[in-house]
Design a protein that fits this description.
The complex is a heterodimer of chains A (616) and B (206). Chain A has 616 residues and is α/β, with parallel strands linked by helices. Chain A has 19 helices and 21 strands. In chain A, helix 2 packs parallel to helix 12. Chain B is globular and about 50 Å long. The chains are: A alpha/beta (616), B alpha/beta (206). Chain A: One of its GO terms (cellular component) is nucleus. Chain A: Belongs to the Rab GDI family.
Chain lengths: 616, 206
C-alpha cells in the first residue's frame, strides 16, 4: 500500500463519510492495547457510543507490529532504513542504531513480506489478566497463540560456576516440572528441596479456592507442587503473610518484605536459594525487569499467575507463556475489532489538533486536524498521537515530552533477525525466553548498571513472525539515560551472536542477518498511578515488561476511574475488576446473537433475533 | 496433520459502505433480508457449511468489515489468511464500482497473498432490484471488462440480496475458487492453543 493511494482514497471518500456530529459517550484517541481495551469494553459491555481514532495509518502504536505491507515497500529491509519504518509505527523514538548489515540483504529483501516485527514485543501467560480479557471479550476469535517452549536464565562463565568457555554465557534451562527439577544437575539436593518447598507454598496459595485439580502427584510431569506430591503433605501455611508482600497499595504500615526485592527475598532465609536459582525465579517466572525493584507484591502475584498458567491448556503445553501468532500487535488490533463489531466507529489517519475540556458544558471537545469538532463526555488519550494542544487540563494530566525525557531511565530495545536458534538446534527450543541478569554480565562497561535484566525472546517460523529458517530475537532492557544505546546490548550481541557469516564449523553462534536497536521513554509508575479525573485518562506507551500484565492492570484501573461508581472513582481496587466480565451462562441473557458468528457453528436466527442484530 | 484437507475457508467481503455486504452475507447464510439500512454494527463473521461439487464438505467463514471500511480502517489482521475476496459494488452507484480497483489493491497490499497474480477475487454487482432496474448506472459490460482487466478470470455476478437473486450461486462460486487456490505452503497448520476453551474446562493438565 502506498501513501499516495491512501491519501487519494481518503480525500475522495471524505465528503461521503463523516463522523456523526452528536456527542459521543467516549472518544478514544490511539489504538494501543490499553486504549483498545477501554474502547472495546465501553462499547461492548458499557453499551456506550464510542469513537476510536488514531493519528497513524495502522493499529497498535507502540503495541503494534511492523509488516512489510504497512511501510512503504522500501522500509523494512531493503535499504535497511529501519528507523524510518519504526518512526512510522508511531512509537516515540529517542535514538536508534542499525546494528549490522549482512550480505544476506537480498535474501531478506525477497522475504520481507513474511516478517512481522513488533515495536515492543510482549507475550501473555495462560492465566493472566490479558488472557482473561481475551476470553471474555471474544477477542479470541481473532487471535491464535503458541506456547513458549522453554525458559532459560543466563549465567556468566567468569564466576567459575559454569563449564562454558570464558567470557560466554551459558543458558541454564528453567525447570517447568518436578521431574525437571529433580533431573537438574546444577541444583544441589538441598536446593532442590528448598526450591520445591518455596514453589509448593506459592502454589498452594495460587490454587487456593480455584477448585482446580492439576493432576496427580505421582506423575513426574505434574507441575511443581501438585497436590499429592511429597511436598504437599505438610499443610503448614505460616509464612503466607510474608510470602505475599503488599506493595503498599493499601498503605499498610511497614511490612518488612516491602523493602526487599524478589531476588533478595529468594536468597534470604528462610528460602536460601542460590543466586542462579533466585535469578531464574525472579526473572523467568516473576519477570521482574530489575533485580532491585521493591514491588515484590507484584512479583509474587506474577509468580502465582505463572504457576496457575502452567499446564492450563493440557499436559502437552506445560509452559506458561503464550505468544500471539503474527506478533503481539495482533492483540490490540483484535480488541479494536471487538470495539467495531460492538458498534464503535473506528478510523485511522485522524490526527488531532486540540482537545479542550469545557467545564461549563461538562464535556470535552476534540478538534481534528481536518477541522471537525467532536464532543464527548469522556476522553482517552494514548501515546503517539502527535502534538496535541491541551486546554483546560491540570498540569499533571499533561505529559509533555520534556517531562518524559527528564526521567532518569529509558527503555532500550533491539530486534534481530538470525539464522539459527540461540539455544542450540533442539527442535523444541525455538520459541524461547531468556533472562540475562546483571550477575551474568561482569564485563559490562558501566559499573552502576547492575540493576536491570535484559529479556530476550526468540520466535521462529511457527509463530508466523518470520519465514522458515530464520528467527526473530527481541531484546529489551531498561537503563539509565546516561548509558549510550550502543553499549546496552553490546556484550550480549558479542557473546550470543555473530555479526559475520560463519559457515558451519566450530562456533554454532547464530548470525545476525539484520538488526536494529532503539530507545523509547520509560513509562514510570507515577504516570501509571495518577488517574484522578473521571472524564479523562492518558495512557503512556508500552512499558519495559515482557508481559502485557501491567498494561491490562493499567487499563482496568483507568476503566474504574472513568466508569466506576463515583464513591470509589479514585480507588486502585478497581484494578481487580476485569474490563470484560465473564460471559453470562446460557439462557441468562439475550446476548446470544454473537453465537451466530461464533466458532464454526451456525445457529438459525428467528425474526426477533435477526431484527435485534440489525438494529443493535 | 500436514496432509489434512482444508476444511475452513476464509472469505472476506469488501466494498464501499452501503453496497450491501452485510445483506449479501445474511441472505446467503441466514436466508434473511432486512430493508432497513444501518451501517453495519454487530456483524462479525458468519459461518456456513457447504458441500462443494459433491465431495468437499467445507466450512465457509465469511468476514464482514464491521463498519471499519467506512474510513479505510481495516487492519491487516482482517485481511490475513483470506482464501477468497468478494468485491461488492452497487449497480446503481458509479463510485462504488470505481472504487473496486482501490479495494482490490488494498487487499493485495495488506493480505500479501503468496500468489497475487492468481489470487481468487469475485465481483458482485448488488441491488439489481432497485427501482426495477431503472436506476442502474453500471452496465454488466463495464463490470465484465473490469473483471477481464484484473486477470485470473475473475467471475462476475449481478445479485440482489433483497430478492435472493444469484446470491447462492455467487458464494458457491467463491467457495469453489477458494478451494482451487489452495496454496501448498499454507498447508502448514499451526497447532495453536485454544484459550477460550479453558474457562469451562479447567480440569487438570495431567
Amino acid at each position: 500500500m502506498t501513501e499516495e493511494k491512501n491519501d487519494g482514497k481518503k480525500d475522495e471518500n471524505e465528503p461521503a463519510e463523516s463522523f456523526p456530529t452528536r456527542a459521543f459517550d467516549v472518544i478514544v484517541l490511539g489504538t494501543g492495547l490499553a486504549e483498545s481495551l477501554i474502547a472495546s469494553s465501553a462499547s461492548k459491555i458499557g453499551k456506550k457510543s464510542v469513537l476510536l481514532l488514531d493519528a497513524n495509518d495502522h493499529y497498535g502504536n507502540s503495541f503494534g507490529t511492523l509488516t512489510e505491507a504497512r511501510g512503504t515497500d522500501e522500509t523494512l529491509f531493503k535499504g535497511w532504513s529501519v528507523p524510518v519504518c519504526l518512526t512510522r509505527s508511531g512509537a516515540v523514538l529517542e535514538t536508534h542504531d542499525v546494528v549490522t548489515i549482512d550480505d544476506d540483504e537480498c535474501l531478506l529483501a525477497s522475504l520481507r513480506r513474511k516478517f512481522s516485527v513488533d515495536v515492543a514485543f510482549k507475550f501473555s501467560l495462560g492465566d493472566d489478566r490479558l488472557t482473561e480479557e481475551v476470553c471474555n471479550s471474544e477477542a479470541y476469535k481473532y487471535l491464535e497463540f503458541k506456547t513458549l517452549e522453554k525458559s532459560f536464565v543466563c549465567v556468566g562463565t567468569s564466576d567459575g560456576k559454569t563449564n562454558g568457555k570464558k567470557g560466554e554465557f551459558e543458558f541454564v534451562p528453567v525447570p517447568a516440572s518436578r521431574a525437571e527439577i529433580f533431573e537438574n544437575a546444577r541444583l544441589s539436593p538441598t536446593e532442590k528441596r528448598g526450591l520445591m518447598r518455596f514453589l509448593k507454598k506459592a502454589r498452594d496459595v495460587a490454587l487456593e479456592g480455584t477448585g482446580v485439580n492439576y493432576g496427580r502427584g505421582d506423575d513426574a510431569n505434574a507441575p511443581i507442587g501438585a497436590p499429592g506430591t511429597e511436598y504437599t503433605l505438610d499443610a503448614e501455611r505460616e509464612d503466607e503473610g510474608t510470602f505475599f508482600a503488599n506493595d503498599g497499595d493499601n498503605n499498610s504500615s511497614s511490612s518488612s518484605s516491602k523493602n526487599t526485592s524478589m531476588k533478595a527475598f529468594l536468597m534470604e532465609s528462610p528460602n536460601d536459594l542460590s543466586e542462579i536459582t533466585s535469578d531464574a525465579v525472579a526473572h523467568c517466572v516473576s519477570f521482574c525487569p530489575s533485580v532491585t525493584t521493591k514491588l515484590r507484591g507484584r512479583a509474587s502475584e506474577m509468580l502465582i499467575t505463572y504457576i496457575r498458567s502452567m499446564g492450563k491448556y493440557g499436559p502437552e503445553t506445560p509452559q506458561a507463556g503464550l505468544i500471539p501468532l503474527y506478533g503481539s500487535g495482533e492483540v490490540a488490533q483484535a480488541f479494536c475489532r471487538v470495539a467495531a463489531v460492538s458498534g464503535a466507529i473506528t478510523a485511522l489517519r485522524q490526527p488531532i489538533k486540540k482537545i479542550e475540556r469545557k467545564n461549563s458544558e461538562s464535556h470535552i471537545e476534540v478538534l481534528t486536524k481536518g477541522g471537525r469538532v467532536l464532543t464527548c463526555k469522556k476522553l482517552v488519550l494514548g501515546d503517539a498521537q502527535g502534538d496535541i494542544e491541551m486546554v483546560g487540563f491540570a498540569n499533571d494530566e499533561i505529559i509533555t515530552p520534556n517531562r518524559r525525557e527528564s526521567s532518569k531511565f529509558c527503555i532500550n530495545r533491539a530486534v534481530l533477525v538470525t539464522n539459527r536458534s540461540m539455544v542450540g538446534s533442539d527442535e523444541a527450543q525455538h520459541r524461547v525466553f531468556v533472562a540475562i541478569p546483571p550477575a551474568a554480565r561482569p564485563g559490562k562497561l558501566y559499573k552502576d548498571e547492575d540493576e536491570f535484566v535484559c529479556f530476550a525472546t526468540q520466535l521462529d517460523y511457527s509463530s508466523r513472525c518470520c519465514p522458515k529458517d530464520t528467527f526473530i530475537v527481541h531484546l529489551c532492557q531498561k537503563s539509565r539515560r546516561t548509558v549510550p544505546l550502543q553499549d546496552v546490548f553490546a556484550d550480549i550481541l558479542d557473546n550470543i551472536f555473530s555479526k559475520v557469516k560463519q559457515n558451519g564449523e566450530e562456533t554454532k553462534k547464530p548470525t545476525i542477518l539484520w538488526g536494529t536497536s532503539y530507545r523509547t521513554p520509560d513509562v514510570d509508575d507515577d504516570i501509571v498511578e495518577s488517574f484522578k479525573s473521571d472524564d479523562f485518562v492518558k495512557f503512556p506507551g508500552a512499558d519495559c515488561n515482557v508481559t502485557f500484565e501491567e498494561t491490562v492492570r493499567l487499563a482496568r484501573s483507568a476503566n474504574g476511574c472513568l466508569f466506576g461508581d463515583d464513591a470509589n472513582a479514585s480507588s486502585l481496587s478497581f484494578d481487580t475488576l476485569p474490563l470484560f466480565p465473564k460471559a453470562p451462562q446460557k439462557g441468562e441473557e439475550r446476548e446470544e446473537e454473537e453465537e451466530v458468528t461464533g466458532d464454526g457453528e451456525t445457529i438459525d436466527l428467528n425474526e426477533d433475533e435477526y431484527a435485534l442484530l440489525r438494529d443493535l | 496433520m500436514s496432509a489434512r484437507k482444508r476444511t475452513l475457508l476464509k472469505l472476506i467481503i469488501l466494498g464501499d459502505s452501503g453496497v450491501g455486504k452485510t445483506s449479501l452475507m445474511n441472505q446467503y447464510v441466514n436466508r434473511k433480508f432486512s430493508k432497513q439500512y444501518k451501517a453495519t454494527i454487530g456483524a462479525d463473521f458468519l459461518t456456513k457449511e457447504v458441500k462443494i461439487d459433491d465431495e468437499n464438505l467445507v466450512t465457509m467463514q465469511i468476514w464482514d468489515t464491521a463498519g471499519q471500511e467506512r474510513f479505510q480502517s481495516l487492519g491487516v489482521a482482517f485481511y490475513r489468511g483470506a482464501d477468497c475476496c468478494v468485491l461488492v459494488y452497487d449497480v446503481n452507484n458509479e463510485r462504488s464500482f470505481q472504487n473496486l480497483e482501490n479495494w482490490r489493491e488494498e487487499f493485495l497490499a495488506q493480505a500479501s497473498p503468496a500468489d497475487a497474480e492468481n489470487f481468487p477475487f469475485i465481483v458482485l454487482g448488488n441491488k439489481t432490484d432497485q427501482d426495477g432496474g431503472q436506476s442502474r448506472v453500471v452496465s454488466e459490460k463495464k463490470a465484465l471488462s473490469f473483471c477481464a482487466a484484473s486477470g485470473n478470470q475473475c467471475p462476475h455476478f449481478e445479485t440482489s440480496a433483497k430478492e435472493d437473486s444469484n446470491v447462492q450461486d455467487a458464494f458457491e462460486c467463491a467457495a469453489r475458487n477458494a478451494l482451487k487456490n489452495e496454496v501448498e505452503e499454507e498447508v502448514y497448520l499451526p497447532d495453536t492453543i485454544v484459550v477460550n476453551k479453558s474457562g469451562s474446562n479447567k480440569s487438570g493438565c495431567c
